[in-house]
Predict the structure.
Amino acid sequence: MEKNNRSRLPHWMKMSSRLNHDEHYKEVRRIVDENKLHTICSSGNCPNIGECWRAGTATFMILGNLCTRSCKFCGVPTGRPLPPDPEEPMRVAQSVKTMRLRHAVVTSVDRDDLPDRGASFWAETIRTIREVNPGVTMETLIPDFDGKDELIDLIIEAGPDVISHNLETVRRLTPAIRSKAKYDTSLKVIRRVADSGITAKSGIMLGLGETPEEILETMDDLLAVGCQVMTIGQYLQPSRDFMEVKEWITPEVFADYEKAGLEKGFRHVESHPLVRSSYHAEKHIH
């Protein structure tokens, strides 16, 4: 985020940079760098990177650091990705082992350039992490794979404990901020996951111009397709090239949405301005 944007952050959105100098943070950075890995923590400018890396956790991003889509909210660079690296699944698995993680989180860029959108590579990565780290639990934050059942099933069959796919925003705003993904396609993905018996999870950002009524309707849509876990966080503009923040939502309002979601029937709701998809992901396994 650019400095002029950061200076306008409300006080509840400001994190201490001192966290990034902690020894645990430096160790995670070393492991990520030495294994030539990407993390959404860095690529997505996550505000919790200090807290999570100090705790020895990171969300690995596979299939490169260039996305084939150009969504108006996401800071991951868009471009023509390199071919998948056949050694990446093992490097990720070994990093999970080196970090002594009990719960691993994996996500990826969109790979619309690949015939299977990267689904087979995803499945190989999940299996490799399992083989190298028996007993580790795992969450996968997946793309929509264009809603193709046979590709979603590759992830399901690989057997992660939680499969997450983000709606990102309410139905009305989806065409404005998501370059290719469709609201109903994302719901279809979540339904496919939920019907398999694996815990289905999704998340949205606030502050893009949505209304309280639309947020509650989105909750209902997710529950209708079997979603059990929901995350709600504040949208942060990566740079001037992206959608502007329309509103800063207070922590009190986020707490109200958490209460509403639990009352509606979600098993777990993580709702706070600084929440991102994988924040406290270890809690969502149970």
Residues 1-7 have pLDDT under 50 and may be disordered.
